[in-house]
Amino acid sequence: MRQHLHLWLIPLLPLAGFLVNGVIGRRLPKALVSAIALAAPLAALAVVVRAALLAWPGVGSMALPYIGACPFNWIDAGSLHIEVSFVLDQLSLIMLLVVTGVGFLIHVYSVGYMAHEEGYWRYFSYLNLFLFFMTILVLAGNFLLMFVGWEGVGLASYLLIGFYFDRKSAADAGRKAFVVNRIGDFGFLIAMFLLLANFSTLSFAEVSSKIAAHPGMQGGLLTAIALCLVLGAAGKSAQIPLYVWLPDAMEGPTPVSALIHAATMVTAGVYMIARTHVLFDHSPFALSVVAIIGAATALFAATIALVQTDIKRVLAYSTISQLGYMFLGCGVAAYSAAIFHLMTHAFFKALLFLAAGSVIHGLGGEQDLRKMGGLRKAMPVTFWTMTMGVVAIAGIPPWAGFFSKDAILYEAFQHGPLGKALYFVGLLTALLTSFYMFRLWFLTFFGESRAETAGIAHSTLHTSHSDSHAVHESPWSMLTPLILLAILSTIGGAIGIERFGGFLAPVAGPVLSPAEQPGGTNLDYALSAVAVGVALIGWLLARLYYGRKSERPAQIAAAVPGIYNLLLHKYWIDELYNRVLVQPLMVVSRYVLFWVVECGIVRGSAWLLAGIATLLGEFVRRWQSGNLRSYAGWLAFGAAVLLFAVLGVAMGANGMDVHLNWAGR
Amino acid sequence: MIIPSSWYLLLSAVLFTMGVAGFLIKRSLITVFMSIELMLNAVNLSFVTFAHDWHAVKGQIFVFFVMMVAAAEAAVGLAIIIAIFRIRGTLNVDQIDLMKL
């Protein structure tokens, strides 16, 4: 018997939460707002967990994929039929568990973090709205429905980045994220048009089966579609060249950075590539592009993260770098490894962001690493949980990050000469990752406190906290999610890539088994050992330079001022984009579009019409003299004109021959 | 001797033209009003002429309609004229220009 999973509940529950809190949340007490906002993702999580239990191999009996189709079509136009269908397969199941699970924990955390903020209800309704669109994106059974979720999470991201909309930098950052994402969406749209034109369907399953029916199909069209999809994915997942929005997105509240800009939304690009991997499998060129973009982004962002001083910016560049890893995984056709890293990254990066949020909260809004230090004693729970996150991302076994990163690096190494080259890029990135994460860790928690006088340290952002002068540990509503995520970051990788990949294999293709590859298991172990060694070197270097108060970082920076400035200013990419793209666009908008099109054509035509009417009126109004006899004259004139017109027509019809009886009968 | 219908029509046209001329030229509202009556009756004459010519009774019926409307109009029109005279103290059409913009 077929059981019903009620997939439609998963997106609709957060939508209900959004509607209730969004419409009447302003009038509700905070406790009720939190209860509604927490209930929605918790209930959705329950539905997902039930589905997972029913479908998990060995536990349940349900066969995947499970399709929850809507009884009617969304679009019926000619040969185009688009259904509202939700598909639950292994891939979307994993994603849903991550999205609703981590999402729920971050909701819980937000209750503590946002407790003193204005617009509490607004924040939670946006957060629920995000979950609604994210679950639609994950569950979608065709490209168009996925695009709905894709745009929706972009909207939620925009709203939440600009949550403190009275701050100009936040409003600008939200707009930047939205505009940059539009560039990516353009690629997604073109890909959809190409699919429609050539496969006349947008359903994932049908596209796959059509490609499977023509095994000879290779490159060309598929490369074009795949590259357009990559553009979309690069926008959403903040890859070169469209990564610039993510660091600025840190203007939003920290839990938002954790949920949307680290754990879930930004991984949508990776998810989309894994979901459409059939297209990529038939286009080696597109795969190479993905791998190169991923590796380049990973290294590039990691180097920037080395010198950033804002705790959230370090984490933001670290996120970009880790997303680069996932792209690298996709690019070497190791989709399972990429999704595995996506999952573990969701755990430890959410943890890191939330812990950073806890630090910021405890310091009353201070985000500058140079003004932290010595927090180990003051915030023990935050310290220990963040330590779990740091060792997890650094890739030290047995924490989660080690397993997933190792899986990606191994598969890259086995993927031809290009893969080998990218493996070394990935390895270097791992070294940098370990270094900058431990740098952050040492700067935050060790040494002397470098906080300035209390009045300044508890300044601007969280003015409401300024009454609590001492550095304080965060409330338990914030610490509980930290502890749970720390546990997940610790044990999340233990499932191992073999079992994880085996579960995903029906959707994401098989994983390489080291025993059957050249080099055998020994190579696997050797590569793992190298990765661990690299991570430990990173820790050692960070300890050397930042473990205690030292002049050496400053000396190094002074020794190579060029490189240091280049990194500190993020390679001047923002400035470059500003010069090359934004400024010309502004000039064109201001002068050509505004003066010529807006003022000249749009307003000009309106003025022209109005002017004609006014002039005509000036002339015509003179007829309304009020003089009765002039009216009568015009009346007679009009009648005469009509008479002559009729006469003319009559004479035209009968010649000049008008019959009048002059002579009688 | 039968008088040709064109004579009637000519008379009708002359009467109508006189009516139009009076309507346009005269300043007294009463005279203008009478000019309108003259035009109506000129038209009545041509109606009757054609009705006789074509042996159609419709034209004669129309004449009755026109006379009836003219009678009603005369009643209403004269009442308006009296009212205007009471208010304005004049019947000069050039001074009755309240409907100016």
Topology of this protein?
The complex is a heterodimer of chains A (665) and B (101).
Chain A (H helix, E strand, L loop, with lengths): L8 H16 L5 H26 L10 E12 L2 E9 L1 H24 L6 H20 L3 H19 L6 H32 L4 H10 L7 H16 L8 H4 L5 H10 L4 H8 L1 H5 L2 H22 L5 H21 L3 H28 L12 H4 L1 H15 L5 H14 L2 H30 L8 H4 L18 H16 L4 H13 L11 H27 L5 H8 L1 H8 L4 H48 L7 H27 L11
Antiparallel strand pairs in A: 1-2
Helix pairs in contact in A: 1-2, 1-4, 2-3, 2-4, 3-4, 3-10, 3-15, 3-21, 4-5, 5-6, 5-10, 6-8, 8-11, 8-13, 10-15, 11-15, 13-14, 13-19, 14-15, 14-18, 14-19, 15-17, 15-18, 15-21, 15-22, 17-19, 17-21, 18-19, 18-23, 19-23, 24-25
Chain B lengths: L4 H21 L3 H26 L3 H31 L13
Helix pairs in contact in B: 1-2, 2-3
Could you explain how this protein is built, in words?
The complex is a heterodimer of chains A (665) and B (101). Chain A has a two-stranded antiparallel ribbon. Chain A is globular. In chain A, α14 runs antiparallel to α15 (335-362) and α19 (416-445) runs parallel beside α23 (520-546). Chain A is 71% helix and 3% strand. In chain A, β1 and β2 form a beta hairpin. Chain A is mainly alpha-helical and 665 residues long. The relative contact order of chain A is 0.07. Chain B has a single domain (5-88), classed as Helix Hairpins (Orthogonal Bundle), CATH 1.10.287. Chain B has 101 residues and is mostly helical. Chain B is elongated, with a radius of gyration of 17 Å. Helix content of chain B is 77%, strand content 0%. Classes of the chains: A mainly alpha (665), B mainly alpha (101).
Any descriptors?
heterodimer, A: 665 residues, mainly alpha, two-stranded antiparallel sheet, 2 strands, globular, B: 101 residues, Helix Hairpins, elongated
Main β sheet profile of chain B: none
Looking at how many chains there are and whether they match, the oligomeric state comes to: heterodimer
Enumerate the strands of the largest sheet of chain A in spatial order, edge to edge or round the barrel.
1-2
Structural class of chain B: mainly alpha
Strand segment tally of chain A: 2
Radius of gyration of chain A: 32 Å
H/E element sequence of chain B:
HHH
Rounded mean pLDDT of chain B is 89
In the CATH hierarchy, the third-tier topology of chain B is known as Helix Hairpins
Rg of chain B over CA atoms, rounded to whole Å, is 17 Å
Principal-axis shape of chain A:
globular
Name of the CATH class of chain B:
Mainly Alpha
- Low-pLDDT stretches of chain A are 453-468
Percent helix of chain A, as a range, is: over 70%
At CATH's second level, what is the architecture of chain B? Orthogonal Bundle
State the separation between the terminal residues of chain B, measured CA to CA: 58 Å
N→C terminal distance of chain A: 105 Å
Shape of chain B: elongated
